[in-house]
């Protein structure tokens, strides 16, 4: 059974950025440039302030999709990374009177910082206000605003000029688990037809990442993205495993040479971390969360089988049970909480049994491939509000 939300199909390829460098470049003007002063103009000649938010990865400890934003945005960041936030509000036409930043996560305010400008003796006002950190008491200061990306975080920034014109933006930071792409291409150079290029790329790394490929004969260990040539003497299935302390992704490709060997030898168990996506309530029921696995379009040449699904919501403020809908019996999220026969409840860290998988899918080991993905539909059991993210880990095998 496949989850019905069509927006889940496919995957987004993201380019690895040198986030720490470019974010630091974005901060340099705020550190080195002095304030300019201007008189307050008539409202018709004034403009609302422009807000710029800088997102820094200290020590390049993760990847940020947008290091600098100036409008309401959704910013993807590595699951588990530490994010440093700063900002400024500018208005060369008539100055900035106040600027504030509020950062919240899991329903709690992490930082609230505000700074104000005023006229000097000549009645000139500052054209820019900056918040590089907080003072811990609601004002701007030198305490870095650091957010650990274990769950979704939200920043609201507001700036007002001396004529009462206000700008406000909201930036939503969404943690993303590590992803991986893995392909094999035959070397077409004359005399090298038996060799293959293995190419791979991982996205959303954090400190403590590792990449392994098995079998591996190159004396240099694989890195986050790269290529190697292999010369197998028979059909061989290569498996890539990319890990961070917070998530893991695996991919397999098969290269065929000669008529001997298995098309995909037994490899297992393997795991893949998934961030479920919100889906519209069914028939007036609660908000559901869903994903298809594996994602269509990914290099997944070995047909695999589902072993178990694990409730991965076990970190810090993201601990809660989840209800996995029994798709084989045509239940939907409308049955969440009200019909215990419609779902399997997993406590944080708990795994399904083979009986649970049979009840959810009608088979104790469903086949997995991009053309025959399984749907995962869940309802989180939370006491207040809607969680910022819902995670599961899929265990599977080629056996």
Task: Sum up the structure in keywords.
399 residues; mainly beta; Immunoglobulin-like; 3 domains; 2 helices; 6% helix
Summarize the topology.
Layout: H1 19-32, E1 37-39, E2 50-56, E3 68-69, E4 73-78, E5 82-90, E6 98-105, E7 108-116, E8 124-126, E9 128-131, E10 145-148, E11 153-160, E12 166-176, E13 179-186, E14 196-203, E15 210-214, E16 225-230, E17 236-243, E18 248-255, E19 270-275, E20 277-279, E21 288-293, E22 304-311, E23 322-325, E24 343-346, H2 354-361, E25 367-368, E26 374-380, E27 391-397
Tally of alpha and pi helices: 2
Distance between the termini: 21 Å
Report the major sheet.
5 strands, antiparallel
SS-based structural class? mainly beta
Uncertain residue segments: 1-32, 258-263
Instruction: Please indicate the count of domains.
Output: 3
Count of β-strands: 27
Q: Estimate the mean pLDDT confidence.
A: 81
Short description:
By secondary structure, the protein is mainly beta. 6% of the residues lie in helices and 41% in strands.
Folded structure, characterized:
The protein is mainly beta and 399 residues long. It has helices at residues 19-32, 354-361, and strands spanning 37-39, 50-56, 68-69, 73-78, 82-90, 98-105, 108-116, 124-126, 128-131, 145-148, 153-160, 166-176, 179-186, 196-203, 210-214, 225-230, 236-243, 248-255, 270-275, 277-279, 288-293, 304-311, 322-325, 343-346, 367-368, 374-380, 391-397. It has 3 domains: 19-175, no CATH class; 177-265, Immunoglobulin-like (Sandwich); 266-399. It is built from 2 helices and 27 strands. The strands form 7 sheets. Strands 2, 3, 5, 9 and 10 form a 5-stranded antiparallel sheet that branches. Strands 4-12-11-6-7 form a 5-stranded mixed sheet, with no helix packed on it. Strands 20-21-26-23-24 form a 5-stranded antiparallel sheet, covered by helices on one side. A hairpin with a 5-residue loop joins strand 11 (153-160) and strand 12. It starts with 18 loop residues before the first helix and ends with a strand. Mean pLDDT is 81; it is low at 1-32 and 258-263.
